[in-house]
Amino acid sequence: MTTATQTTNERAEILAEIEYHEAQILELKARLPRRTLSLWCFVLARPRSRVWVYAATRGEANQLVQARLAAEYGESFTLAGDAEEFTDPFEAARSSKSGNLVKALTPNQRQQFIADFRADNIEPDKKAKAVPQIWVDIRDWEWTHRRTDQS
Predict the structure, then answer these.
(1) Whole-angstrom Cα Rg for the chain
(2) pLDDT at position 58, please?
(3) Tens-digit pLDDT string for the chain (151 aa)
(4) C-alpha to C-alpha distances, 151 to 6, 70, 81, 97, 111, nearest whole angstrom
(5) How far is 44 from 79, CA to CA, in rounded Å?
(6) Where are the domains of the chain?
(7) Three-state SS string across the chain, please?
(8) Distance, CA of 72 to chain centre
(9) Most Cβ neighbours (<10 Å): which of 33, 47, 65, 128?
(10) Of 98, 83, 85, 82, which Cα lies nearest the Cα of 39?
(11) Per DSSP, what are the bridge partners of residue 41?
């Protein structure tokens, strides 16, 4: 039969062990590399617009934008300078002047971005009053996509 003192001591030991392991988990999560790549915003001088690309490096972003623009415009486009890199998707969504950032990506990039972003971030509660713009963009695209698939 255990005494109250033994039970209290055992409980304290278990709680200390839990606290230790929770600290270890937080440390590991902090060291975990992000899956989310960079978002790149290219400004076009002709036609006047912005193009968003999801890529790991500036070189890859340049290749992707050139291929995308060649497919969409042929040779009738002009880039206006270097792309702006956004390593923070929250900032990219706030900076997007073209509306929904997620819709501005190609279907393959969009799918990869959403998967990577969800792997790195916890989605806020759907009833939350203040939801970051990037989550609004993702939810809007998914809602529209579900409706389109159902019709």
Answers:
(1) 23
(2) 95
(3) 567 777 888 888 999 999 999 999 888 887 877 789 999 999 988 887 899 999 999 999 999 999 999 998 888 888 888 899 999 999 999 998 878 999 999 999 999 999 999 998 888 888 888 899 999 999 999 998 887 766 5
(4) 65, 32, 41, 30, 21
(5) 4
(6) 38-150
(7) CCCHHHHHHHHHHHHHHHHHHHHHHHHHHHHCCCCCCEEEEEEEEECCEEEEEEECCHHHHHHHHHHHHHHHHCCCCEECCCCEEECCHHHHHHHCCCCCCHHHCCHHHHHHHHHHHHHHCCCCCCCCCCCCHHHHHHHHHHHHHHHHHHC
(8) 25
(9) 65
(10) 85
(11) 52, 84
Question: What's the token pair of residue 17?
Answer: 């062990």
Residue 104: both structure tokens together? 């501005």
Total residue length of the chain: 151
Token reading at 7: 């039970």
